[in-house]
Amino acid sequence: MKKALTSLVLLALVISIIGCGSNNNKEAASSAPAASSPSASAGEASPSATASESQDPVTLRVAWWGGQSRHDYTLKVIELYESLHPNVTIEPEYASFDDHWKKLAPNAAAGNLPDVIQMDISYLSQYGGRGQLEDLNSYTQNGLLDVSDVSEASLSGGKLGDNLFAINLGSNALLAVIDKAMLEKAGGTMPTENWTWEDFGKLGSVMKSDGKILTQDLRHDVFFPFYLRSKGQHMYAADGKSLGYTDDKPFIDFYNMYQSWYDEGSLLSLDKLAQKKGTPEDGELELGNAVSTWGWSNQYILSSSVAKRPFEILPVPGWNENKALFLKPSMYFSISKSSKVKEEAAKFISFWVNDIAANQIIMGERGVPVSAKVKEALKPSLTPDQAKVFDYVAWAEQNSSQMDPPNPVGAVEVDKLLKDTAEQILYKKLTVEEGAVKFREEANKILAKN
Amino acid sequence: MKLRDNNHVVGYLFAAPFILGFLVFIVYPVLSSLYYSFTDYNLLESPNWVGFDNYNQMFTDDEKYMKSISVTFNYVFASVPLRLAFALGVAMLLNKAIAGIGFYRSAYYLPSLIGGSVAVSILWSQVFGDQGLVNSALGVIGIDTDTSWIGNPATALWTLIALSVWQFGSSMLIFLAGLKNIPKDYYEAASVDGANRVRQFFKITLPLLSPIILFNLIMQTISAFMTFTPAYIISRGEGGPLDNTLLYSLYLYKRAFVFYEMGYASAMAWVALIVIGIVTLLIFQTSRYWVHYESKGEK
Which helix (H) or strand (E) segment is B83 a member of? Predict the structure, then answer.
């Protein structure tokens, strides 16, 4: 009897302590900046907006991810919208990329998703395919969401099958950002746009002689799939139930190359990379330690403005093989299925995509605008850096092929698996060949659940 | 009779806020997590009953899970004894009657006040970073290194253990109270008999303190198993490098909120509950061999 009592007390103790523990976890997890509600004064402004709209007060929740500069200008766009639509109050909810998705899923479970959600291509199948997002076709047809100036190619990036689950906010293309002055100071010459990965690797020893590195890293989940495209392969099978390739050769070639750069000290060592915050302020190129950085075109503007020195843009090697280059929606806006104010949400997205004053605040930070009219209108006011990006994306559009379809469900886990595998290769826990097999088998296992 | 019934009602009424809170915020979530642990639940669609699949996968087909278990056990077995030893050592220092002892006691308790917070974890990643305090200090004594202790697979977990040891305050306070309860005459008698300090420590202090050690050991072991915040902040939510700081609760959290596998994560939580229960029980079982209750003789 006494024993039973003891174990009962013990169980209660363990449960209550675990209860406390998990509370703490939640606190830590939700440490993302709390969304500040905008001043309510906008609702009291004179009701001079277009008379045709309903004037019932509407509250619209808009969620996005980003860094501080994106939060700042997005709030300005929201203020502008509220001043034009006095009956609308917008509750912004913003966080970093990772926290954005951590907040969304429980919201979805509670049927409480924000009305307008900034969507990423890697989550589109999860949310769209699982009935969380509204099909926007009816809104584009009835004109509430005006896409008359948006090309079909740009629009199709938000489609799953025939359903338009997300509106593309801007076009992105992959690029390499090169610090030409640093390269020439070290005795190198600026490569042409037809450069190869080998040309890039050879710059390693040149930069090393000057105490610099090539770049901090290349994102595995971005550049390995690109490499696959240049070999005529794809990361994911069309049905999303497996990887798109069965031959490990591209993996082995790519990671042999990657490892040789790493081993000769041309990339940032992994222990230091683990501490990088991933912001431009913290980037090795921006800090003047690396000759290049690799990423999406919209990131170029922040890079050069942080570094305060001019950079050159080059396409990623292999872009001219198998038409590997592609335009990708940098991000989308979606409307949640559970939203009660879908029409107002559609109007807000339409404003974001088409309004010239709004886009003069945004200035292509979410990718080159998809509306041809907006693109034209912005041209005179672009800074030289912004113009470079617009030109590059325009050039890329002429030299690209259709992007891969949105990543299948499970891709988030596959991306992490790729990163883990690459680290194990670089730490010499696995050979490249072993890594190739392990990655393919485990990724296929994850995707087989679909 | 009637009066007694009324008393019950009043009693329950006063206890109602707690009982309600306990039912709604503890019992219901605990039971629903048990249900979810038998489902495939991605938060976006309604849960799908899969029986024991989650538990099966955990033990037969999840390398990372095994890795996180070994990381967690390493962490617990290293951090708990070190932390307790450290706490006891400091408690004994602070048990001396010296001027300004109150100040020292507060000062030593300070790290625990700011304890498991996010700020300390961020501070920690600065201290052990590649250009952190530790490397600067090593530079001063002539060891030049620019490795990041946090990013290096061999040392990453040890920075977490060091952080846990540094937060020894609450155990220290309890030890201090225990030390004060040991009658001074025991020590006087022992020194009259010619026992030196070391002998006094092992023959008097440790046995008389053993019930308190047991209490601290259990509390600290349970909380060590549940450690989340430092690993989450210091490894930026990844549990890296090479999963060497992938503590159990961090992996659980990743499964739940990064991969959207609530069913699997719930199953992990239940396994953790059972394992922690077993470990706690084992500690209780062994206690009869080393815990000394003064009142035992009177039983």
Answer: helix B63-94
Average pLDDT of the segment spanning B265-294: 90
B-chain CB neighbours of A18 within 8 Å are: 222, 226, 269, 272-273, 276
Query: Of A300, A317, A286, A274, which Cα lies nearest the Cα of A384?
Result: A300
Q: Which CATH number fits domain A57-169+330-398: 2.60.60.30, 3.30.70.260, 3.30.70.20, 3.40.190.10?
A: 3.40.190.10
Domain ranges of chain B: 32-298
- CB of B233 within 8 Å of a chain A CB? The answer is yes
Q: Mean pLDDT in chain B?
A: 85
Interface A–B counts its CB contacts (< 8 A) at 120
Tens-digit pLDDT profile for residues B82-120? 999 988 988 888 887 777 787 887 887 777 777 667 777
How many degrees, rounded to 5, is the angle at CA A307 between CA A301 and CA A311? 60
Domain at B32-298, CATH homologous superfamily: MetI-like (1.10.3720.10)
Interfacial residues of A (vs B; Cβ cutoff 8 Å):
6-7, 10-11, 13-19, 21-22, 24-25, 28-29, 31, 98, 101-102, 105-106, 108-109, 126-127, 130-132, 269-275, 412-413, 416, 420, 423-424, 427, 429
What whole-number distance in Å separates Cα of residue B127 and Cα of residue B118?
14
Query: pLDDT of A259-305, one tens digit each?
Result: 999 999 889 888 888 877 777 778 888 888 888 999 898 888 888 88
Mean pLDDT of B219-231: 89
Low-confidence ranges of chain A (pLDDT < 70): 1-54
Nearest by Cα to A249 from A445, A440, A408, A429 = A440
Q: Where in chain A is the domain with CATH 3.40.190.10?
A: 57-169+330-398, 174-327+404-448
What is the pLDDT averaged over residues B277-293?
89
Q: How far apart are CA A262 and CA A426, in angstroms?
A: 7
Third-level CATH fold of A174-327+404-448:
D-Maltodextrin-Binding Protein; domain 2 (3.40.190)
